[in-house]
Design brief:
It is built from 5 helices and 4 strands; from the N terminus they run E-E-H-E-E-H-H-H-H. It has 149 residues and is mostly helical. The protein has one domain: Up-down Bundle (Four Helix Bundle (Hemerythrin (Met), subunit A)), CATH 1.20.120.330.
């Protein structure tokens, strides 16, 4: 892994498509395990702490999946997107009828904004975010390793 130093933090970047995809899958699995620690009652998770942690990891799993594709296309690790706007701009250029952009939008809104930042605990909302994150991981896993990049 390569270190990128900024003013406030040190960010560890994946250096290969394999590494990025492995991280995406690991984040996703860890997120699902963390989420399972929160009981469900009346359609809501009863332990917001676990929901927030899981949502953060779920969101990052989707971003790492996109990173894997970009690295496969030849993007240098230090040139990977650094904001949601940059990730969305990248997805607009990939021909999948807007499905990838729609999936990232749901992941961003449901997991990152509503569940992580605002403490949303609705089971259906969180599950939809994870469903879309998993779809992005699967799609970019296939695209990253296809011969016709």
């Amino acid at each position: 892994m390569e270190m990128k130093k900024g003013k406030r933090t040190t960010k560890v970047l994946p250096i290969s498509r394999e590494e990025a995809l492995h991280e995406a899958k690991t984040y996703f699995q860890n997120a699902k395990e963390t989420l399972s620690k929160s009981p469900i009652e009346y359609g809501v998770y009863t332990e917001p702490k676990y929901v927030k942690e899981a949502a953060g990891m779920g969101y990052l799993s989707a971003l790492r999946a996109i990173d894997s594709f970009l690295l496969a296309k030849g993007t240098k690790p230090d040139k990977l997107p650094t904001s949601i706007e940059e990730y969305m701009k990248v997805l607009k250029k990939i021909p999948h009828n807007g499905k990838l952009l729609a999936a990232l939008t749901v992941v961003y809104q449901n997991l990152h904004i509503f569940a992580y930042y605002r403490g949303g605990i609705g089971v259906d909302m969180v599950k939809e975010g994870f469903k879309r994150a998993k779809g992005l991981i699967e799609t970019f896993g296939k695209l990253s390793f296809s011969e016709n990049l």
